[in-house]
Each structure stands twice: as structure tokens, then as C-alpha cells.
Amino acid sequence: MEERTVKKLMTSLKCTSCGHNYQMDDVKVLGNHQDLYFLQVTCSSCHSQFLITATINTSDNTQIISDLTDAEFVKFQDSRSPSANDVLDMHSFLKEFDGDFSGIFGYRKV
Ligand SMILES: [Zn+2]
Predict the structure, then answer these.
(1) 19 Cα: distance to centroid of ligand 1 (angstroms)
(2) How far is the CA of 44 from the centre of ligand 1 (A)?
(3) Residue 104 domain flag
(4) Domain count, the chain
(5) Domain range holding 31?
(6) How far is the CA of 105 from the centre of ligand 1 (A)?
């Protein structure tokens, strides 16, 4: 894989210190052995430095392992990832939840 392609892939990641998206110039490819790459990344925003090892699979037979059906995968593939607030909301909900699922789903006993 070309060094430029590896750098381009890294631009989809964010700095773990400040959240700034990495730019191609932030990434230095130190070397690789087959699909294993050794990278030095310097955030252009906060100047934090990280050494990253990344396995970049270049084969075309990539298989996704999931419990989702094909229809569910299509439905959720463009969904946003849960935010920290989403996790906090769920934490608060579960802290108060009494286990009454029928009350949540509006199920009434006959
Ligand atoms: Zn940063």
C-alpha cells in the first residue's frame, strides 16, 4: 500500500487529546512489515505525539462479523456513533430502572 494511502486513512481518526482530525501532514510512516504499519502522528492542533501500530488489510476478502441481518446492516450503516452524553443518559436510565419492561413498552396484562 502506498504511504499516501496510509496517511489518507489516518485522516479519518481524531486526536485522543483534543479531538482534532488528523491531517495527512500529521502522519509519518516509520516503516512497515507486510500489512503492519508503524506510524508517528503529531496532532497539528495540540502537538500531542503518538506512536501507532496499525494493521491495514489490503486483501479484498474482508469479512464483517456481526449479529445484524443484511437489512439491519443497511439500516444502521450511516447512523452516528453513540456520544458520551448518550452513554450518560443510558447510565442514568439504568440506575433508576426497576426492571419493568412491560411499563416501558406499553404492554398491558390481559
Ligand atoms: Zn490534538
Answers:
(1) 6
(2) 7
(3) no
(4) 2
(5) 3-55
(6) 43
38-91, pLDDT tens digit by residue? 999 999 999 999 999 888 877 766 666 778 888 888 888 888 888 889 889 989
- CA dist., res. 14 & res. 21, Å (int): 4
**87 alpha carbon to ligand 1 midpoint, in Å?**
23
In a domain, 21, yes or no: yes
Domain contains 34: yes
Residues 80 and 47 in one domain: no
pLDDT band at 18 (very low <50, low <70, confident <90, very high): very high
Residue type, 35: D
Q: How far is the CA of 48 from the centre of ligand 1 (A)?
A: 6
CA-CA distance, 54 to 15, in Å (whole number)?
Answer: 15
Q: How much is the pTM?
A: 0.52
Ligand 1 centroid from CA 77, angstroms: 27
Return phi, psi of residue 102, to 5°: -65, -35
In a domain, 61, yes or no: no
